[in-house]
Specification:
The chain is α/β, with parallel strands linked by helices and about 550 residues long. Among the domains are: about 110 residues, Urease, subunit C, domain 1, CATH 2.30.40.10; about 110 residues, Roll (Diaminopimelate Epimerase, Chain A, domain 1). About 30% of the residues lie in helices and about 20% in strands. The N and C termini lie close together (about 10 Å).
């Protein structure tokens, strides 16, 4: 692909450049300069001052899971319960087996827990398993409960919660590992279903300017088959048009640590467009279901400290074994106790700021201020899902009431991380929430979102500036992937670029959420074109973009 992009503002992954042109020849960035190229390309785009960035690097996303769910019973776009049920009824006409999919919001149901009787009215006979948007809960009907043998006598599994009524009967909502009691009965997805999910997810991410990502669970999880082989095959056939690092899943029931490390070593891929150099630990649950691990009890009648999936000894031993084997460690930690446990385990294995390890902690929702400087001291990246740092309905209804006043001041301490010198990355956790980087960046700057239930900023003192946010979502995340091809714009590198519809540096910060991606180039190939750009010759038509990609 040969292309000149003119009259464009350029953020190179670290700062704005004193240039207004990028020239691409043979899919490689050959020049970053001013004015027109000495030898113009056959195709020229005039961006009229819009912003060109490196392709976004999503440091925590579930691409195949999200793609599969978008092709199944996808209720993520429903505005209310009736629309949710209409979508389920429509899906019932398309399949004769299990109804799977999901995307429901905990904020839409009392206590964050929908009930089986609602689904039974739609279909009492077909088993249903619908994941919540955050993938930490499942909504099931009585047919699914019966198939799994779950009744009033069934105990909560370790690390899981079966939601019950006043007399102990299961109501149809399963949290954390309790989901596995039902998901074990779902027929495994066929290879072609997983492949279709990967391609659908990839297309969605490309449309948002994402050219590389870390798939946060490559393993069997909550009814989903591992996408490992699908990624390998997609790379082999050329259908994988992005750079991907898969985080291999560390199961919650591991007993023989050395044997598990040996198993993961057999899956490790260190070269090519799909690499598996990272291992994922889910240390706790989420605040909404009071399963996030806390140092002090929840401020509600239910109380409790949440769920910690691993002991201190297990984390220290497993982290040490994986670090010695050369893996990077990727932690899910929501509650302050989970964050502290991860940091303690990293400290125990001698993690330090001078190390070349790319260990990181994702989500970091509730962080004890004492622990904030430890990230930089230990060289641990804070992997931010910035979209969540606002007064959305789940924060208002299901987080703040159970956190209490003190912990509610510890939420998403982005500015404190930056001031402490912490390395920052960003990701979306899609399909938990949108993968649109511009919406996440909007929240990072404003600590509010245009569609949030309360427009008041959430702890506005923890906002970060635009350069910091863009750096985190490009070069900061590329650092975690150990990527040499993504995260920056530089001469001699493959073209991995995203052209925004506007220049956010020239906008009021409250307008950033409205920015869209006009053009995405991945590996020197056009993979998304909004077909609204002005070209010297002609607007690049979508079919031409596809032929060139």
């Amino acid at each position: 692909m040969d292309l000149d992009i003119l009259d464009v503002s350029i953020f190179d992954g670290h700062s704005l450049l004193p240039a207004n042109r990028v020239s691409i020849r043979g899919g490689i960035v050959t020049e970053i300069g001013t004015g027109e190229a000495a030898e113009p390309a056959p195709r020229t785009i005039t961006a009229t001052g819009a912003l060109l960035t490196p392709g976004f690097v999503d440091a925590h996303v579930h691409t195949t899971f999200g793609g599969q769910e978008s092709l199944a019973c996808d209720i993520s776009g429903a505005q209310d319960l009736e629309e949710t049920l209409d979508l389920i009824r429509l899906h019932l006409t398309k399949t004769q087996v299990w109804v799977t999919g999901g995307g429901w919001s905990m904020a839409g149901f009392p206590g964050g827990a929908p009930t089986a009787d609602i689904l039974d009215e739609v279909s009492p006979d077909r088993p249903m398993f619908l994941l919540s948007a955050d993938h930490h809960s499942a909504w099931v009907n009585q047919a699914a409960l019966a198939l799994a043998g779950i009744d009033i006598t069934t105990p909560d599994p370790p690390g899981g919660v079966i939601v019950r009524n006043d007399i102990g009967e299961p109501t149809g909502c399963l949290h954390e590992s309790a989901m596995d009691l039902v998901s074990a009965y779902i027929p495994p997805a066929a290879d072609e279903v997983i492949r279709a999910g990967l391609l659908a997810g990839q297309s969605y991410l490309h449309s948002l300017g994402v050219t590389a990502w870390m798939d946060a669970i490559v393993g069997d999880y909550s009814g989903h088959r591992s996408p490992f082989e699908t990624y390998v095959e997609a790379e082999r056939t050329g259908d994988l048009r992005a750079e991907v690092v898969g985080s291999l899943w560390w199961p919650r029931d591991v007993e023989d640590i050395d044997a598990e490390v040996d198993r993961l070593l057999r899956l490790r891929r260190t070269e090519g467009g799909f690499r598996t150099t990272s291992v994922k630990f889910m240390l706790d649950g989420i605040v909404e279901s009071q399963t996030a691990a806390m140092s002090a009890e929840y401020a509600c009648a239910c109380g409790g400290f949440g769920t910690s999936y691993f002991t201190r000894e297990h984390l220290e031993r497993s982290f040490a074994a994986l670090d010695a084997a050369g893996f990077d460690i990727h932690c899910h930690a929501i509650g302050d106790a989970a964050v502290k446990a991860a940091l303690d385990a990293f400290a125990a294995i001698g993690a330090s700021a001078g190390s070349d390890a790319r260990h990181h902690i994702a989500h970091v929702q509730v962080v004890d201020p004492i622990d904030v400087p430890r990230f930089a001291e230990l060289g641990i990246t804070a992997n931010l899902q910035a979209l969540w740092a606002c007064h959305d309905q789940q924060m208002i209804d299901l987080n703040l009431p159970v956190l209490g006043p003190e912990r509610s001041t510890w939420l998403y301490p982005f500015a404190s991380f930056a001031e402490a010198g912490t390395h920052l990355a960003m990701g979306s956790d899609w399909p938990v929430s949108t993968a649109n980087p511009w919406e996440a960046i909007h929240v990072a700057l404003n600590r509010c979102h245009p569609s949030a239930g309360d427009p008041a900023p959430l702890l506005p003192e923890q906002a970060i500036d635009l350069s910091t946010a863009l750096t985190a979502y490009t070069s900061g995340s590329a650092h975690l992937l150990r990527s040499e091809a993504n995260g920056t714009i530089r001469a001699g590198a493959p073209a991995n670029l995203a052209l925004a519809s506007r220049n956010p540096f020239a906008l009021d910060p409250t307008q950033i959420a409205g920015i869209t991606t006009e053009l995405t180039i991945a590996g020197g190939r056009i993979v998304h074109d909004a077909a609204r750009l002005h070209s010297r010759t002609s607007t690049i038509p979508a079919d031409d973009a596809e032929r060139q990609s």
